[in-house]
């Protein structure tokens, strides 16, 4: 079942059926208020834009930024770099346990330090 909610004419709050205060002005204009506080401020002619708890103030001062879809960040993408893992493991003194466990032998390529030694000859 869908409930028809209305908005308070002063604060901008949602008003569910059976709640709120309805005021009809002399020119037959209908105002619906969420609470007696909203009704009192309306009749005292206070501006909702000057009260920090109203929706008008929050919209003017950009307080509800998380509701706007314009400021969505782009998805995080990872930059891939190519690394010779066997060379780095060999130079650090560790063996690739996973490849040895499954019987796979990685291609043995000379590391950067041994490559410079080979080029020296």
How would you summarize this macromolecular structure in one to three sentences?
Residues 8-46 form the TRASH domain. The protein is of the alpha+beta class and 121 residues long. It is built from five helices and four strands, in the order E-E-E-E-H-H-H-H-H.
Task: Write a structural description.
Residues 92-121 are annotated as: Disordered. Residues 111-121 have a biased composition (Polar residues). This is TRASH domain-containing protein. Pfam families: Ribosomal_L24e. The chain has 121 residues and is α+β, with helices and mostly antiparallel strands. It has a domain at 6-63: Roll (Ribosomal Protein L24e, Chain: T). The protein has helices at residues 36-43, 55-60, 85-92, 97-101, 112-120; strands at residues 6-7, 14-15, 21-24, 30-33. The model has no long low-confidence stretch (mean pLDDT 78).
> Averaging pLDDT over every residue, what do you get?
78
Distance between the termini: 85 Å
Q: Could you name the CATH homologous superfamily of the domain at 6-63?
A: Ribosomal protein L24
Which fold does the CATH topology of the domain at 6-63 refer to? Ribosomal Protein L24e, Chain: T
The total count of helices amounts to 5
Number of extended strands: 4
Largest sheet features: 2 strands, antiparallel
Strand content: 5-15%
Helix/sheet category: alpha+beta
CATH class of the domain at 6-63: Mainly Beta
InterPro entries: L24e/L24_sf, Ribosomal_eL24, Ribosomal_eL24-rel_N, Ribosomal_eL24_CS, TRASH_dom
Pfam families: Ribosomal_L24e
Protein name: TRASH domain-containing protein
Family: Belongs to the eukaryotic ribosomal protein eL24 family.
């Amino acid at each position: 079942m869908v409930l028809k909610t209305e908005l308070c004419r002063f604060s901008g709050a949602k008003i569910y059926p059976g709640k709120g205060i309805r005021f009809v002005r002399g020119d037959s204009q209908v105002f619906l208020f969420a609470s007696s506080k909203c009704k009192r401020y309306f009749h005292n002619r206070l501006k909702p834009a000057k009260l920090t708890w109203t929706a008008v103030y929050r919209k003017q001062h950009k307080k509800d930024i998380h509701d706007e879809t314009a400021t969505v960040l782009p998805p995080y993408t990872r930059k891939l770099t190519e690394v010779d893992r066997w060379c780095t493991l060999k130079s650090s003194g560790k063996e690739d346990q996973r490849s040895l466990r499954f019987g796979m032998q990685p291609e043995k390529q000379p590391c950067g330090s041994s490559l410079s030694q080979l080029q020296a000859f």
